[in-house]
Write a structure and sequence with these properties.
By secondary structure, the chain is mostly helical. It has a single domain, classed as Dbl homology (DH) domain (Dbl Homology Domain, Chain A). The protein is 71% helix and 0% strand. It is built from 9 helices and no strands. The protein is elongated, with a radius of gyration of 18 Å.
């Protein structure tokens, strides 16, 4: 059975087990990275549900929906895959290296950031219709805007989450 993030409970358990097998000095950083990554994906999926509801109910024109959500779904798909990869890394692998390995995939964030101002403006213009959805992500514009900007906030947190105390 899959979790809301599309990961099976088996994958989640393997990630938890894998994080426990890490060097004790890095356990807390790795646990935090995995836990926050999982929560981040849940929030991304919640925003994608808003996008789907708006499209399915034709509450806004397609170009407006595309302007608001830009490549949100592509980021969500990538982050699901990335979480699976993070959770399955061998204990001798240096965690920061995985970010270098997936540098091209992280360019999704640059595309997203370049369109964020337009996305926010389109969301504000259409928020009277968006807010009619019964969804915690759209309770008010500030809340919705916070979730819309989540990818930019998250990508800026990675350097801090990757800091792991090393023993000489």
């Amino acid at each position: 059975m899959a979790t809301k993030t599309g990961l099976s409970h088996k994958h989640v358990a393997a990630m938890e087990k894998r994080s426990k097998e890490q060097d004790p000095a890095s356990d807390s950083a790795i646990d935090k990275l995995l836990a926050t990554e999982y929560k981040y994906i849940q929030d991304l999926e919640g925003v994608c549900e808003v996008q789907d509801a708006l499209a399915n109910r034709k509450m806004l024109p397609e170009p407006t929906i595309a302007a608001i959500f830009t490549n949100f779904k592509a980021i969500t798909v990538f982050q699901r895959q990335f979480l699976t990869i993070l959770g399955s890394l061998s204990s001798n692998r240096k965690w920061p290296d995985i970010f270098v390995d997936y540098e091209d995939d992280f360019r999704l964030y640059a595309q997203f950031a370049s369109k964020l101002a337009g996305a926010t403006k389109a969301a504000k213009n259409g928020f009277d219709k968006i807010t009619t959805l019964d969804n915690r992500f759209v309770s008010d514009f500030d809340t919705f805007e916070r979730f819309l900007t989540l990818p930019c906030a998250r990508v800026s947190q990675y350097p801090q989450l990757l800091k792991v105390k090393r023993t000489p």
